[in-house]
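Hi V.,

Quick status before I head out on leave. The structure for the redesign project is tokenized and pasted below; the design run finished overnight.
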């Protein structure tokens, strides 16, 4: 009886260590902090929105013990130090181990995948899910029984139809990265962009829509103060292989130059106006708002406002 009580007492005392502090931890404790999940495993952008208990928080100090700062900066942006939460662990084989992680930086939540080798050393990390502001899309990510990592985006169209795009990756252990092996682009269906600030006032002489093709838009509207402007940027490049979207309020640094700086990360964008164009330039990493292989840059041409004549 006493032995049984001793065993039960030992089980109760066996708790996962806290990883929310600043002290170094063992790599085995870090990996054991993640619960094992069965294949196939997937999660959605809605799952990222759920609140996690503080007991599951992994501090940046602990996370960066095992994942290089350079890898975190490349995915999250330079200088960003988010909080991390475990989502699941896949023990693929004796050679590889996959950990799914939620990263939280202010209101921004993203899904990451990191991989370790048989010696529990870091191999690679990739961004697998980054929710957008479009209420008509849903994002899904996961890993199948063949250890193929996939990212899916589904979109509901205004006419009731739906489109789906999918990218599939596998780990390239030799190159220390995830390699794209299949892509099924989200088919272009929409004939025009949905501009979330379209109906706002445009009394400022800079306020207008500036375009560079059908699906590339910089929309400017009046700010809350005379020295500020509201903007919405959407661009698509390389047959939608790279898409970026950003909305915010920029400060006028001069009569022809505005600058936006995010309050939740390092993202900064400059807007330079001429009489008929606006040129955008990314000043600091806005990786959470665009694809990995492109940046916010380019020149957009001002569009004339078509005034409808009243009948009679």
């Amino acid at each position: 009886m006493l032995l049984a009580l001793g065993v039960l007492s030992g089980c109760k005392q066996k708790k996962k260590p806290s990883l929310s502090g600043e002290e170094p931890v063992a790599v085995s404790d870090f990996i054991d902090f993640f619960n094992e999940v069965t294949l196939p495993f997937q999660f959605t952008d809605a799952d990222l929105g759920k609140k996690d208990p503080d007991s599951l928080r992994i501090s940046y100090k602990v996370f960066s013990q095992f994942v290089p700062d350079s890898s975190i900066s490349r995915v999250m942006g330079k200088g960003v130090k988010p909080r991390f939460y475990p989502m699941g662990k896949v023990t693929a084989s004796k050679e590889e181990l996959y950990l799914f992680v939620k990263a939280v930086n202010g209101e921004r939540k993203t899904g990451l995948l990191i991989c370790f080798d048989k010696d529990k050393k870091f191999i690679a990390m990739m961004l697998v899910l980054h929710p957008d502001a479009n209420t008509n899309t849903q994002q899904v990510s996961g890993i199948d029984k063949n250890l193929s990592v996939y990212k899916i985006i589904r979109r509901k169209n205004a006419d009731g139809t739906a489109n789906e795009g999918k990218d599939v990756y596998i780990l390239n252990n030799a190159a220390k990265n995830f390699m794209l092996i299949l892509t099924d682009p989200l088919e272009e269906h929409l004939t025009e962009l949905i501009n979330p600030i379209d109906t706002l006032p445009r009394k400022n002489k800079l306020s207008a829509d500036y375009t560079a093709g059908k699906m590339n838009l910089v929309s400017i509207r009046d700010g809350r103060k005379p020295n500020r402007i509201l903007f919405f940027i959407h661009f698509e490049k390389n047959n939608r292989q790279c898409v970026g979207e950003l909305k915010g309020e920029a400060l006028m640094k001069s009569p022809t130059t505005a600058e936006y700086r995010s309050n939740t990360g390092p993202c900064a964008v400059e807007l330079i106006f001429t009489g008929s164009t606006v040129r955008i330039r990314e000043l600091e990493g806005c990786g959470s708002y665009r694809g990995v292989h492109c940046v916010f840059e380019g020149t957009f041409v001002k569009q004339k406002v078509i005034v409808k004549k009243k009948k009679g």
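Above is the designed sequence. The two ends are 98 Å apart (CA to CA).

G. will cover questions while I'm gone.

Best,
W.
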